[in-house]
Each structure stands twice: as structure tokens, then as C-alpha cells.
Amino acid sequence: MTSPAPEPPSGTGPDESPGLPDFDLDALGREGLREAHAPLAPTAPVEHDGTGRVRLHFTPAERSYAVPPGVTVFDAASWNGIAIDSTCGGHGTCKKCKVQVTAGAVPASPLDARAFSGAELAAGWRLACRAAANTDLTIDVPPLVTRPKAATVGVGRQVILRPAVQKRCVELTEPSLTDQRPDLQRLTDAIDDLEVRPTLYALRRLPRVLREADFSVTAVIVDDVLIDVEPGDTTGSRHAIAFDLGTTTVVATLLDVGTGTPVAVASMLNAQQPFGADVITRISATMLDPAAAERLQSLARDTLDTLVGDVCDEAGIDRTSVYEIAVAGNATMTALLLGIDPEPLGVAPFVMTASSFAGLTAAELGIGVHPAAPAHVFPALGAYVGGDIVAGMLASGMDRDKRLRLFIDVGTNCEIVLADGETILATAAPAGPAFEGGAIRCGMRAAPGAIEVVKIGTDDVTLSVIGAADGADDAADVAPAGLCGSGLVDAVAELVRVGLLDASGRLATEDDVAARHPGLADRVTKVGEERVFVLAWLGEPGDVSRSVYVSQRDVRELQFAKAAIATGWSLLCEELGVSPRDVQQVLLAGSFGSYLAPGNAVRIGLVPRLPVLRIVSAGNVAGEGAKMTLLSVPERAGAATLLREVRYVELSDRTDFNDRFVDELAFPG
Ligand code: FES
Question: Which domain holds residue 43?
Fold first, then answer.
């Protein structure tokens, strides 16, 4: 049973002004991520070393998320589809993002002192975009009270709210012998601010709907296309769905494009999983069996269509109220969804059939929304820097920030982008399945039972396990069943920190551990000939057959993965003529990268050796980019422009790649 969300304080500070501020592009700071105009809460930068996680529980949604410390409540909510009021996009200028911290503590920021009374501050009210989470928190999120002119996306960037989906409610005069204009002209004459051309679907509906509704109708227009005519006034219902079509996980966000807010979010494993965990195995399946491509296409459609049902059910709307979709996926996922042969993507010289896809409809893709809804499929840069990365670059403003920034989407295939405001370089590095828990002895996906956080003490090991449900309280009841990618990184980084793994990646022997860490000695043992470090005994202590452990081979897998990535970013830095130490911000993107502890990413050498506060979890930026294009026509054009600005750097033809790769295998510690 949940209690109703409280109303936010009405604003008692001297700067509080009623209603919406005028929209001012410059004031919004279109500089990309986290261009904070106001400081965060004062203790935010110093309370953590970047190696742990904090758990945020949101009410009344009753959803919990583990995020790296230092992430703001606003960002964590946005990444996960929890809408917090805002008109400035997290820049600390609107003072709309009021939330109440009901458990745990966040120091008041200077801006909080101006936004709230003393009593409100004492009751835990804070501005979410200024509230850096450094401990576990419970946060009550009031319902939205404003109708933003600009929309917020989960990376702290803001877009002008100008969706392609428009509605116009019109009362038409009825035809007569003296007014025999065609129905379409009668309608378009009444819409004086848009030039539209009709779909055949709309023409077929037009005569009947007009007459049944006594000529009082709503025209549904996407870009300049009249896709439907609905009886009465339906202007209050304008929806679109953004899909992040991942190889592993697919996320759908239902947007109210009238307000720019996410209404429902759902995710599920890509139903193509039985054909293999990565893009290469799925491409191989189509090469071995001609029927596989058709099957993969239908599984992708099924996945998207199931998610449509989920988000529409959650929001209580009909599927036909979704008038546009956007899909951001890598080149292989996109090809498979469109029924395009992916084979040329999998063999040298790795060529796409097309880099952009115009004029598609959701119906052509087999996705059940409005029958005439257009489908915006993200353009791709290359076979291994696909539409998901273009969407991520767009969301994180890689083309508009003057700082030297490194974007890393960590996954089986890792995409890396380096930009300095003038030049944008991109590459892809084959990291292998270690980060997804694949090829790891006790590996598993980030699902209930997966160890996601590891801390090694002098004589004990503390674990955090993903719970069975969203509720934080459930987590404690779930026994560890395996190790997911972030848990593996944590475990290896911790073993390096306490000296049980040397820089070359060799696990300490039983004798070494007994001498230096006697409290941990019983955890170092062998499975067959392989040395392992036991994280959790599931049966009797000493029964390694029923335990979750990190093996020597697992460490090697992680070394290969991180060395591939480090080789990628070091070569991009060389191409741009900069040192990795000059990088001002590292964005860790993707479902894995976002939950990776920055300090541990530094310790294992996955990212350059930088202060942890320069390393930022960026959330599901592909999904955010897809949302942007649905909320803002100018941003959609920006994605096409980005494509022309990026220079792709091919790693596989570099003669020095292997030497560099070997150099990057060591753990910097
Ligand atoms: S002040 Fe605008 S989102 Fe926080």
C-alpha cells in the first residue's frame, strides 16, 4: 500500500516566481551533460572514492536502483523513467525539481536554501538536480505540476519541445450545395498553420469520421503528413514510443509528447537471445541457415511489440494513441529488424546496406501502434558504430561541448568516441562477453541473484546482490547465484586493491594469502588446476562446488576486454594529439557502463587514470537520444548532422594494434 505523493512546497524562497519562465535557449546551457549552473550539495564531491554504489528507492513508484555515488537524484530518476518536474533540464535554474528525501540524508545546497523554507529543508525537501546521492536514500517524488516548454532527457540535457506529432482540433462547417469543397480541403483550410499531405489511411477514414462526429474532429499530423482524423477533441492525447533496441536488452519509453514527459518504461531481454549473445553469432546464424534471418526479424518485432503492450497497459492508453516510434539500435539489430541481410556487416570490409532509413512506418516493421505511425530509425555511422551510438552522441551533446570528452559504451562490442568541440573521432573495440557475465565461470546477467557490488575487507567480503523485485528490502533476501559484469569488475578491482592480484593479473597463491591476509586464506583455493577466489559459499564453507568465485581465467577475460577498450581510447587520443590525462570528462554509457563504479574502472585501467569525479555514469543514452528525436524535430536534424561530422577510426588495420593491446593488459592498480 502506498501513500499518496505529497504536494511539493509552493516555493518560499525569494527567487521563486510563479508559472513558467520564458524559454531562453542560451539560458538553458546547451553545452551537453552536467553543465551545472548552480553548485551541488556541498559535501557531494568528497564523500566517496568512486568504488561503491548507493541504493535509491523512489516513492510512490516503489522502484529502487543502485547507482554510483555522486549521481544526482534527478539523473538517477531520469535514467529510469521516473519523471521529476523540471523546465531547465537539471541545470539548477528552474527550481521545479522538488523532491522529499524521506530516508537517508542529503546536505542542502546553496540553491536549496533559496528554494525552501527552513521547515521544508528540515523535512527533507531538496532540489533533485542539486542532490548528489552519496548514501542510500528514499525519495518521494511529487506528481508533475508544470507543463514544460522544454523537455528534459535523462542525461541532464534539455531540448526544445517541438515534437513531430501535432494535433489540431477543428470545428468545420458542414458541406452544402453552395459549399462543395472536398472533405480534405475543408479540413486543411481550417488548419492554417501547417501544410499537410494526407496518407491513404487518413483519406479512407476522413468521410466517415467527419460525418459521424458532426464535423468536429482532430487532425493527427506527423511532420507534414496527415495520418489520421479522430472524432471530437483528442488533443490531450499525443504519445510516441522510443526504443533502445539492444543486443541483450530492449527498453521502451512511452512519451507524452505534449508535455515532454515519460509516462511508462518497460524493458525485456531481446527475444533473439537463443541465437547467440552477441551480434557476430546472430549474423553467423543467418549465414548458416537462410530461415534464421526471418526468425530473427520476427523475434525483434515480437520484442518491440510486447513492450508496446507493456507500456500502453501501464499508462492505460490504447496502442492506436501512439503516433510515432523511434528506434535506436546497433547496425546488426537494425538490419535484422528491417529484414535486411546482415552478412556484409559481419565480414571484412564490414559494409552497411544503408546508413539511414527514411519513410518507414511502424506497421512495416510489424509493430502494433497507430496503423499509419511513422518509424524513425536512427542512422548509423558504420557497421560497428550504429544508430545506438549516434543516439548516444546526440543525447550527450558530443558535438556541442567544448571540453575534451571521452564517451565509452561498454558492452560486447564497445564503442568509443572522443570529441573536443572541433573534432569527433569514433571507433569500436571488440571487448568480448565478459562485461555481460559471459565466458565467466560463475558469470550471469545483471538479473536477480547476480552479485553486483563487491567489497573486500581484511577478513571478510561484503556483497550486494540484485534483488528479486524492485523493492530495496527484497535484495537482502536473495542468495547470490552468480557474478554480473559490474560485480566482476568490482571483484577484480578489489583484489588488485588488497594485493591479491598483481599488475599482471596473477592471483596470489594460497601461501601468499595465508601470510598477508590470513582472514581471507580459506577463500583462495583451486577448481581443478585453476586458482579461484571465493566470493560466496552457498553450501558449507570449503565446498567450492557450491560457491560463487572469480577464477584466474575470469581475470584474464576481463583483462582482454578492458585492454581492447583501453587500446581504443588511447589510439583515439593519439589521433587527436592529446594525452588521456587531458580528458575532462569520461561518460560511461550503456546498461553496464552506467552502473560501473568509476573508481574501479580506473583501478583496472578501463578508463584513463583520472580523478573519479571526471568519470560520469551517463545512463541509457541511446534511449535518451531516441526520446530526443521524438520530442524535438531540431534534434532529429542534429542526428543527421552528427553523422557527417564524425570521423571513424578503424582499429583492425592498425599495425601497432597488437603491441598496444598487450601493453594495456596490466592493471594500473
Ligand atoms: S532546478 Fe531545474 S531541474 Fe533542478
Answer: 25-140
98 Cα–ligand 1 center, Å: 8
* Residue 191 in this model has a pLDDT that exceeds 50: yes
Is residue 538 a part of any domain in this protein? no
For the Cβ of 29 lying below 6 angstroms from any atom of ligand 1, the answer is no
- For residues 383 and 258, state if they share a domain: yes
Nearest atom of ligand 1 to the alpha carbon of 89: 3
Does residue 483 sit in the same domain as residue 573? no
Same domain? 217 vs 248: no
Cα(268)–Cα(250) distance, integer angstroms: 6
127 close to ligand 1 (CB < 6 Angstrom): yes
The residue that leads in pLDDT, 55 or 186, is: 186
Instruction: Enter the C-alpha cell of residue 413.
Output: 562490442
529 conformational bin, left if phi > 0, alpha if psi -120 to 50, beta if neither? alpha
Three-state SS string over 474-527 comes to: HHCCCCCCEECHHHHHHHHHHHHHCCCECCCCCECCHHHHHHHCHHHHHHEEEE
Residue 87: pLDDT band with limits 50, 70, 90 = low
Confirm if 408 and 544 have CB atoms less than 8 A apart: no
Neighbours of 25 (CB within 10 A): 10
Same domain, residue pair 51 and 134: yes
- Residue 47 clears pLDDT 70, i.e. is over it: no
Angle between helices 552-576 and 485-497 in degrees, nearest 10: 90
86 lines ligand 1 (CB under 6 A): yes
pLDDT of residue 49: 62
Distance 13 CA to ligand 1 centre (A): 14
Could you tell me if residue 578 is inside a domain?
yes
- State whether 178 and 327 are in the same domain: no
Q: 114 alpha carbon to ligand 1 midpoint, in Å?
A: 13
pTM of the model: 0.74
For the chain, give me the number of helices (H) and strands (E)? 19, 29
Q: Does residue 534 form part of some domain?
A: no
* Beta carbon of 496 within 6 Å of any ligand 1 atom: no
The C-alpha angle 503, 508, 512, rounded to 5 degrees, equals 125
Rounded Cα–Cα distance for residues 165 and 391 (Å): 20
pLDDT at residue 367 greater than cutoff 70 = yes
Q: Which atom of ligand 1 is the closest one to the Cα of 84?
A: 3
Q: Rounded to an integer, what is the distance from CA 643 to the centroid of its chain?
A: 20
Same domain, 418 and 469: no
Q: Nearest Cα to 596, choosing from 570, 572, 615?
A: 615
Is any atom of ligand 1 closer than 6 Å to the C-beta of 148?
no
- Residue of 16, 17, 95 with the most ligand 1 atoms within 8 Å of its CB, for mutation: 95
pLDDT digits (tens, 9 = 90+) for 251-280: 899 999 998 888 888 888 889 988 887 888
Q: What is the atom index within ligand 1 of the atom nearest the CA of 92?
A: 1
Residue 329 Cα to ligand 1 midpoint, Å, equals 30
Same domain, 364 and 322: yes
Q: Is 282 in the pocket of ligand 1 (CB under 6 A)?
A: no
Give the residue whose CA is nearest to atom 2 of ligand 1: 94
Q: Is the CB of residue 92 below 6 angstroms from any atom belonging to ligand 1? A: yes
> What's the gap in Å between 11 CA and the centre of ligand 1?
13
Please report whether residue 422 resides in a domain: yes
C-alpha cell recorded at residue 514: 595465508
